[in-house]
Amino acid sequence: MRVVVVAFYPKVWSDTTPATPGRDRRLPRARILRRRPEFLAIRREGGTQSGTQLKLNWRKEPRKSRRMAIVVPKACGNAVVRNRIKRWVREGWRNLQAELAPGSDSVWIARPSAGKAGSEILRLEMIRLYQRAGLWMDAA
Question: What are the tens digits of pLDDT across the range 124-140?
Fold first, then answer.
């Protein structure tokens, strides 16, 4: 008879927890924008930058953590394509966030052409839009 012992260690996320702690690649809930009032405030109080595959709505806040959200409309394709775009943008943001200004909120809105672009093209466009917005550390 085989006995399997599973140890459960609860994860504690804070605003200072890195987005890639060890092998766990998930984004902490504290780093994801979810509420409609937050989206509206970013759109009302922040700025906008547009690219060919993505649109960036952004706002700077006086705090250390960086937060983000991804919006992929149905015009981008079926569920498989929309989830792929979200994965690409999430991975790009996860890798780029160390270069971003602290306290930045980002809402990424995908355009229909994003599904055919690929992860590397989306990552380069994210860098370009962050630089134009002044949220990239080199540009600040």
Answer: 999 999 999 998 886 44
